[in-house]
Amino acid sequence: MSEPTVRHPLSWTVAVPGVAFVLLLATWANHDAWPVLVAVAVALVGSVVAAVHHAEVVAHRVGEPFGSLILAVAVTVIEVGLIVMLMIGGGDGASTYARDTVFAALMITLNGIVGISLLVGALRHHLVSFNASGTGSALSTVVALAAVCLVLPGFTVSEAGLSYSPSQLAYVSVASLVLYGAFVLTQTVQHRDFFLPVSSDDHGRVTGLLDQDEDGHADPPSDRAAKQSLALLVVALVSVVGLAKILSPTIEDAVAGLGLPYTVVGVVIALLVLSPESISALRNAERDRVQNSLNLAYGSAMASVGLTIPTIAVAMIWIDGDLVLGLEPLQIVLLAITVAISTLTLAQGRAKTLQGVVHLVLFATFLFFSVKP
């Protein structure tokens, strides 16, 4: 989790949720004009960033393990809200929006966020160090979630195509929640030290914890600031879901008009949802706290799979249509390469600029083949 800064009452993180909510009410019935749609898009992006900020403030105040859960739930609400609104709108790609968004989130976190964090950290500090035991357990949980939720549907026979049967989807949802819950307990209670920033020698070998007081965070915000952020978080989340509903037809029309595959919609959603975490991870890497960057990357990947899939599964009770979760062969290959490279990256607990470049090239490859499959 990043360290949120409590903002001045007149800051943009306070103003944006209110402005976005007013815009939502004003444009709900009539939003066909392009200037209105541009304003909605800007408000949507601002609301996402503001929502994550306020979730971090509240999470920092209540402490662990509830803090991580609050942040993860907030991000999941944003992601699920965007996916559900697009699925309700129908369209040729509606059945695969959840799969494409979750897979894009995996590629963004495991290659994009990890790659830029390692590259920036190593360029600034020559070598970056992290706890291989903690980060390795995070990666293994992400791999298990991805395999169960996204790979296995293509190999089961109870349902045609790349979908789970209702009973299979129910089992996978429960299994995902168990995996996510077990990791949160491990990270925040049982083995918290494995996920704190580490100190290292001139060769990048880990020598101990960077925080001598075993506190990876700044002083928590006041009760008043936390309550204010909680109220603004609710407003921001409502605004995100409502504005996404308004904007969803425009996103689909734009993708279709450019002749791009519908998987690009999932990439756009994931990039939007993960943009605040990406910025936070980059800032931690600049401060030689790559462990925090990796925590953010793998934690976001875990929430994108372990919380989004079960929530979408419940939402399918009210949404007409199919839910396609199984990855296509090209996506499976990209995931397999990413898992192999990630394992090698984390094995030694230290990394050079080369590892960052490798992950970023894989991320660029994913983006290229999303546009040109």
From TrEMBL:
Example of a GO MF term: sodium:proton antiporter activity
CC annotations in GO: plasma membrane
Q: What Pfam families does the database record attribute to this sequence?
A: Na_Ca_ex (PF01699)
- InterPro entries, alphabetized: Alkaline_pH_Ca-Antiporter, NaCa_Exmemb
**Domain of life here?**
Bacteria
Q: Kindly give the membrane topology term recorded for this protein.
A: Multi-pass membrane protein
For this UniProt record, the keywords arranged alphabetically read as follows:
Membrane, Transmembrane, Transmembrane helix
| Domain Sodium/calcium exchanger membrane region: residue ranges | 35-188, 229-371
Keyword Transmembrane on entry? yes
**Segments passing through the bilayer:** 12-30, 36-54, 66-90, 102-123, 135-156, 168-186, 230-248, 254-275, 296-318, 330-347, 354-371
Q: Does the keyword Thylakoid apply?
A: no
Subcellular location(s) of the protein: Membrane
Checking PANTHER family in the record gives:
SODIUM-POTASSIUM/PROTON ANTIPORTER CHAA, SODIUM-POTASSIUM_PROTON ANTIPORTER CHAA
Official protein name in the record: Sodium/proton antiporter ChaA
For this protein's source organism, the top of the classification is: Bacteria, Bacillati, Actinomycetota, Actinomycetes, Propionibacteriales
